[in-house]
Write a structure and sequence with these properties.
By secondary structure, the protein is mainly alpha-helical. It contains 17 helices and 8 strands. The strands form 3 sheets. Strands 1-2-3 form a 3-stranded mixed β-sheet, covered by helices on one side. Helix 1 (28-42) runs antiparallel to helix 3 (86-100) and helix 4 (119-131) runs antiparallel to helix 5.
Length: 429
């Protein structure tokens, strides 16, 4: 494979030796021959090998007065190379390059490893420039954690140009835990490889191979509270000693809200007269207990919900620009955890109080009662109904008889079933 490069036209400045040729390990004579031939082919010289005594005296003097002297970089060191002709200059470059190699070190085929791009350095640069400034802080923390724990360690010491499908598969094989965790790492890694393709560092994405397999345990679904448990909690709201605990339980247990949306509610968002809740902001804590007040998760999350009238008595009269929970400053996650534990103890509830379980429970019962998935989707603030069905609507019945409705539709009336012994014990239409 020929690795030679065209010689630059400029005869000044600091060119690297790699701009003139790339050496192959095929014997000293062949190395010199290839380099010299390349120089001869690239330069517009009529006859470099002719004897200088064959030149007219005037031309000889002119050539001497134009002695070549250029600065080049060899193995990171600047050196001045001189010559009375391009041929002599090329010979001196070869000698300088060979003399700079450590004793006993073989010539390398192709590009030097130093010409590659360290994966960790490239990935961190991608994250800081293209990713972090353009995503939510919570998402940025997730990306950074995946880079630190999984992605960068898997390719330690490798250039991004060297990573192949087997390296990627080994990364997934080494990761434990849920399949969803590996899927997150895949999303991040895919964006890094795509950026490398755009930068011209690689020609194809190793993740796109059909050989890649991602396995792992399934994520545990959020289990809704039972109807009996919800009735118990709702009936005991008034028994709580802290007014803020009452307000939280009344809002979270009876409305399909994310915790960040409950924490983001201000006095101006609660319309007691019209019995409406306006969801227009969220409060997250990406850096431990330092709150970040931001817009809702999606455009669909910015919505108005009906407020359960029976719990209005538990909501404090809050100034328009203050938070329902916390006043001038929203509650931290630590304060929420302590509040939930306080509620559990004061009510005598038999399980931990979990904000996400309340949201799942309310959406499950909303759909179970109305059988209207679009209404449940709107209440949840989801962009698609598929998201609501997949993650939040669990269904209350363990098993329903699906045979009886089908039998009825297909004309198997009660008298027909009565005449069919095999169906007598199964259906009652």
């Amino acid at each position: 494979m020929n690795h030679t490069k065209s010689l630059p036209n400029s005869r000044s400045g600091s060119e690297t030796v790699e701009d003139y040729f790339m050496l192959n390990n095929a014997g000293l004579q062949s190395i010199i021959k290839r380099a010299v031939d390349d120089v001869l082919q690239q330069l517009p010289l009529d006859n470099l090998t002719a004897s200088r005594t064959d030149m007219p005296e005037g031309e000889t003097d002119m050539a001497k007065s134009k002695r070549i002297k250029r600065a080049i970089i060899i193995n990171g060191v600047k050196r001045w190379i001189c010559g009375n002709s391009e041929q002599e200059y090329a010979d001196h470059i070869i000698h300088a390059y060979l003399s700079s190699q450590p004793a006993g070190q073989p010539e390398q085929h192709g590009s030097s490893p130093a010409a590659g791009h360290d994966f960790k350095t490239y990935a961190r640069q991608w994250f800081e420039v293209f990713s972090k400034p353009n995503i939510a802080q919570v998402t940025a923390n997730t990306y950074e954690r995946n880079l630190h724990l999984h992605i960068c360690p898997a390719f330690k010491g490798k250039n991004i140009e060297e990573i192949d499908t087997a390296d990627v598969q080994n990364m997934f094989n080494s990761m434990s835990g849920a399949k969803q965790t590996k899927a997150k790492a895949k999303v991040i890694l895919n964006m890094i490889f795509q950026q490398a393709i755009e930068d011209g560092l690689i020609t194809k994405n190793p993740l796109h191979s059909r050989s890649i397999r991602i396995t792992g345990s399934a994520s545990k679904p959020t289990k809704p509270y039972t109807v009996e448990q919800m009735r118990f909690l709702v009936q005991n709201i008034g028994k709580l000693s802290h007014p803020m605990d009452k307000a939280y339980l009344a809002l979270q247990a009876l409305h399909p809200l994310r915790l960040e949306e409950v924490l983001g509610l201000k006095g101006e968002d609660v319309d007691k007269a019209q019995q409406l809740l306006h969801i227009c902001r969220a409060v997250t804590h990406p850096d431990r207990n330092l709150p970040q007040i931001k817009e809702t998760k999606t455009q669909a999350s910015n919505r108005t919900l009906d407020l359960v009238g029976q719990i209005i008595m538990y909501l404090p009269d809050t100034p328009a620009d203050e938070f329902i929970l916390g006043g001038k400053d929203p509650l931290s996650y630590t304060q929420v955890r302590r509040m939930c534990e306080r509620i559990r103890k004061e009510t005598g509830f038999d399980e931990p109080i979990s904000p996400i379980r309340f949201r799942t429970t309310v959406l499950t019962d909303l759909y179970d009662t109305t059988k209207d998935i679009k209404q449940a989707q709107a209440a949840a603030g989801h962009t698609t109904a598929a998201m609501t069905l997949k993650h939040y609507v669990k269904g209350r019945h363990e098993r329903q008889n699906t045979a009886a409705p089908i039998a009825s539709v297909y004309g198997l009336a009660a008298d027909t079933i009565a005449d069919t012994p095999a169906l007598q014990k199964t259906y009652t239409v």
